[in-house]
Amino acid sequence: MRKLSLVCLTMAALWVAGCQKTDLNPQPTPTATLNADVATCTPDVITFDNVAAGTRPTSITSTGGVAVGVESQNPHYAYDREAIVFRSSPTVSSSEDTDLGSPNAAYGGVGIGYGGGPGAYANTTPLGNILVLHNFFSYDPNTEPNDDDFTENETPGTIGFNFSSPITATSITVIDVEYAYNSEHEYGYVKLYASKGGAQIGGQYNFSDAGPNGVEVVSLGNTPGVRYIEVTIGGSMGIDNLRFCRPAGHCTLTQGYWKNHSWPVQSLTLGGTTYTRTQLLAILNTPVRGNGLVALAYQLIAAKLNLANGSDGSVISADLAAADAMFVGKNMAADPLPSVPTSQTSTLTARLDDYNNGVIGPGHCDN
């Protein structure tokens, strides 16, 4: 919630009296229904609950195991990663931002604001972690995630989600969008694209004036063929639960395939460390020689590439988290490589190998 000066309040009041931005008006809920290609796809969602508050993500993994690139831009600053994960429940990341808490106090939660109480935008459910654009000027991102503010006359910020293969965009949840309250004139909307920098698909999906701590699920029209989703943020607010539908049963490929073919992404993270395609290929071409980390890396890299290619990874979601944990604090680009006995990684290696070979999960591709 922006802390307005008297001057800003006066200017805002004059602005409201004189005109209205057409893109601030709520857009009618699209009436699109599931068509044949959408009806056969698998529902999925990005929740931000699988990363810690304070994380400034460049990628996020959906609950179904799909790796999605995250890009953020805040015109107030010039950092590489400007979106930050904010904890909205059970406690809030910053006591200054209780209007981002969930659920609202009217429903036994920590959220403060009349918009979250009874009504169309009632804040009734704990959202857990959400994503905001961080206020670098006033808050250290390493100690206190906090959302930034924008006036209606400033260039808004954006958060983009880059999918490696087409999905069907379903909905997104937004919290604390305040247009009329205190003349804050906050606004936001979503646009869908065939690819980053490509053609826009469909119209603009505007956020409603939910009021302080109010929550809205914004329909994205069950729009197929989407590979890039751009969220425009013109105020202090958060986003969560980006729901989409991906092609059902996309098959998997082995690490041997990925060593010799093009990739859907050019980098991956192992244990929170990002590696380039060149570095990952070097790992895939390193003999195991009793090093369990190398054996596990073969299968983890292949599994993450399969997920980025659209495969359903729900059957190995726990295995992926456990495998990633094995690489925390270990630099797989170092010389010599860190090493653990294969006995410590063999169970996870076998599980991911089964997934990549189609023994479990959606099945192996006929390549």
What's the structural blueprint in terms of helices and strands?
Elements: H1 6-18, H2 36-39, E1 42-46, E2 59-61, E3 67-73, E4 83-87, E5 129-133, E6 157-175, E7 187-193, E8 200-206, E9 215-234, E10 238-246, H3 255-258, E11 267-270, E12 273-276, H4 277-284, H5 292-308, H6 317-326, H7 346-356
Antiparallel strand pairs: 1-10, 2-3, 3-6, 4-5, 6-9, 6-10, 7-8, 7-9, 11-12
Helix pairs in contact: 5-6, 5-7, 6-7
Shape: globular
Q: What structural class is derived from the secondary structure elements?
A: alpha+beta
Unreliable runs, pLDDT <50, ≥5 residues? 1-39
End-to-end C-alpha gap: 53 Å
Radius of gyration: 22 Å
- According to DSSP, the number of beta strands is 12
Helix proportion range:
10-25%
**Number of helical segments with 4 or more residues:** 7
- The portion of residues forming beta strands comes to 25-35%
What summary fits the major beta sheet? 8 strands, antiparallel
Domain unit count: 2
State the order of secondary-structure elements, H for helix, E for strand: HHEEEEEEEEEEHEEHHHH
- The average pLDDT score comes to 86
